[in-house]
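User: I'm curious whether this sequence folds into something compact or stays loose and floppy. Could you predict its structure so I can see for myself?
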Amino acid sequence: MTALVAERNTSERVGTIEQHPIKANVKIFKGSLCVIDAGYLAPGRSATGLLVAGRAEDTIDNTVGAAGALTVPVKRGKFRWGNSAAGDLIAQANVGALCYIVDDQTVALTDGTGTRSSAGKIVGVDAAGVWVESKLVD
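Assistant: Here's the prediction. I'll summarize afterward.
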């Protein structure tokens, strides 16, 4: 393709819901922070190499199933997750920075000395938690 010489109506998918196959031996809870782990959906956790997928829209139990046996709808967007504590507490001054996955409902300011994957960009902080824009980033 060549560069634009006129306006373009560029398609977008905002807050879309996608079905993802679930990793074997996991249970995903509705409302949880989900990640892509080796191609399959799993609950968020402290680990490297995970890609944030978004928020689970249903509870699906695949604890006795094979990888890909079940799927769960996952929504992308901006979600409020729990804030970490102590040195990993996220403050208003951190808006615009990346934050990192602690578990399936909590994010932290640091990567835990290289032990956590990115949850996305911090877009707000309030008394109830941290607003994070979920994108497929590592």
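Summary: Residues 89 and 109 are 6 Å apart (CA to CA). The first strand starts at residue 17 and ends at 21.
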